[in-house]
Amino acid sequence: MHIAAKVAVETPAPHQRRAEREAIEVPTTMRALGYQGHDVVIRNISTMGFMADADGEFDAESIVRVRLPSLGTVSARVVWAKGGQIGCEFTHEIDLHRLRAVLAATGAAPSRRDRRPRLVS
Question: Coiled-coil intervals in this record (predicted)?
Answer without folding.
Answer: none
